[in-house]
Amino acid sequence: MIRSSRDPDWTRDEIILACDLAMANGWKRLEYNDPRVIELSDLLQLMPIHPEETRTELFRNPNGVARKTVDITSRHPDYRGKPTNGNMLDVEVLNAFLTRPAEMAKVAQHIRDGLATGEFQALPPEAEEEDDYSAPEGRLLIRRHRSRERDKGLRKKKIDSVLRQGCPLTCEACGFDFEATYGPRGAGYIECHHIVPLHEAGEGRTKLSDLALICANCHRMIHRRAPWPTPGELRHLIQEARGQDKARIPLSRRLN
How far is CA 227 from the centre of its chain? Predict the structure, then answer.
C-alpha cells in the first residue's frame, strides 16, 4: 500500500476531542509526553474517517496531538502570545466550547465512547447525501444518528404505533400525506427522524418517542443546517412562510 506523504487535515470530530482535552487542562498547552496526549493519539488513530492510504507513519502521533492543542489554546481569548498557524475550524470548535462547554463536553464523551466500544467502526460507510448534513457535533455522531433513522425495524414499529392509535401517516412538520397524494403507491410510506439532539444521544436504545414521522423534504430541511429544528419548530417556520406568501397575494385574487 502506498501511503500519503502528508497527513490529512484535522476534521471537526478530531478537533472536538483535542479541544475537550485542552479545556480539561485549563486551556493551557499540553506536552507530547503527557499521558492524556498519548491516550488521545491512540484514540484518534481508531477513528474511521481517514483511509489508511491517506495516513503517514506519523499520523496523529503524540507530537501532532500536542501541537494541535497549542493551535487551539493560542486562539483562546485569554491567551496573550502570538497565535500559531492553526485554521478557522480550530476557532469554530473553540468558540463552541466557550459558549456551550457542558454540551460540547458531552459530544466529546459520546465520540470517545463510540470509538472505545467500536460502535463507529461498525457503522455503514458515509452516504453521499450526508455531505449536505450540517452539525457542529461532527460526522461520526451524524453517521450514528442516520444509522438509527434507517433502522427498518424501528421505523416499522413507529409506523405501527401511530396506526394503532388511529392516526394517519402524515408529516409531523408539514402535514404531507403520501397515500393521499400518490394513492396505493404511497400507502404506508413515510420517513423517520431521530429527534434527540446529538449531544444527548448516547449509546442507549432508541425509544419510539425519540422518533418523529416526517416527509423526505422536511427531513432534508431539518438536517440542512445546524442547529437542527425540531419537527414542531419546522412546522412553525412553514406556517410563517405560508402566511407571508398569502399576504403577498393581491386581495382581489384571494377573494376569487
Answer: 10
**What do you get for the CA distance between the two ends of the chain, in Å?**
71
- The CB density around residue 45, as the number of other CB atoms within 10 Å, is 13
Single out the residue of 231, 197, 206 nearest to residue 151, CA to CA.
Answer: 206
Q: What count of Cα atoms within 13 Å lies in the side-chain half-sphere of residue 59?
A: 22
Residue 158 above 50 pLDDT? yes
Cell of 22: 485542552
Continuous H helices in the chain:
12-24, 35-44, 62-73, 88-99, 101-117, 139-149, 152-164, 178-182, 216-224, 231-248, 251-255
- pLDDT (tens digit, 9 = 90+) per residue, 177-228? 999 999 999 999 999 999 988 888 876 678 899 999 999 999 999 988 878 8
Assign residue 66 a region (left: φ > 0; alpha: ψ between -120 and 50; beta: otherwise): alpha
Integer Cα distance of 111 and 199 in angstroms? 10
3-class DSSP state of 27: coil
Q: Is the dihedral of CA 62, 64, 66, 72 positive or negative?
A: negative
CA 139, 150, 188, 183 torsion: positive or negative?
positive
Cβ(111)–Cβ(36) below 8 Å: no
Closest to 28 in 3D by CA, of 107, 36, 135: 36
The grid coordinates listed for 171 are: 408529516
Residue 223 in contact with residue 134, Cβ under 8 Å? yes
Set of cell numbers at residue 78: 485569554
Say which residues have a Cβ less than 8 Å from residue 246's Cβ, sequence separation at least 6: 254
Q: How far apart are CA 48 and CA 150, in angstroms?
A: 20
CA angle 72, 76, 80 (to 5 degrees): 115
